Amino acid sequence: MKSYKKYFKHFDFYKDKSFRDYNKNALRKEERDTWNLDVYLAGIIYPRLCYLRDHHFGHPCAFKNDKEWKEAMTKMIYSFEWILKDMYSADFEQYNAVKEEKVQEGLELFGKYFRALWD
C-alpha cells in the first residue's frame, strides 16, 4: 500500500487524515486491479466510445465535419475492441502486423483527442 501514497501526496485531500483512513481499502483494491490494467480500462472505454459515436453533438475543430469525427471514433473503437478480443480470444493468429498498426493508430487518436471525448 505504501507504493500508492506517492501518487496522492501532491493533492490537498490526501493531507486530511480522515480521507486517508476512509480510503485505505480503496487503495488496497487498486494493488490487485493493476493486473491486466489495459484490458480492464478497455472494457470501460469501449462501450462508452460506442455510445458516444452514435449519440454525440458536434465534432472537434480539427475535423471538417461530423463524418470525419465518427470515422476517427470508429478507429478508436476498433483498437479497444481488439484489446478485449486479444485477451478473451484463443484465436491469436487473426492478430497480425496489419491489425497491430490499425490498433496503434486508434490508440494514438484516442490520446490525441482525449479531451474532445465529451457530449
What topology does this entry show?
Layout: H1 2-8, H2 17-22, H3 24-33, H4 37-54, H5 66-88, H6 97-112
Helix pairs in contact: 4-5, 5-6
Name the descriptors.
single chain, 119 residues, mainly alpha, 6 helices, 0% strand
3D shape: globular
What is the H-and-E element order?
Answer: HHHHHH
Largest sheet features:
none
- Average of pLDDT: 76
Structural class: mainly alpha
Helix content: 55-70%
Proportion of strand residues: under 5%
Quick recap:
Helix content is 67%, strand content 0%. The chain is mainly α.
Task: Characterize the structure shown.
The protein has 119 residues and is mostly helical. Helix content is 67%, strand content 0%. The chain contains 6 helices and no strands. α4 (37-54) runs antiparallel to α5 and α5 packs across α6. The radius of gyration is 18 Å and the shape is globular. Mean pLDDT is 76; it is low at 7-14.
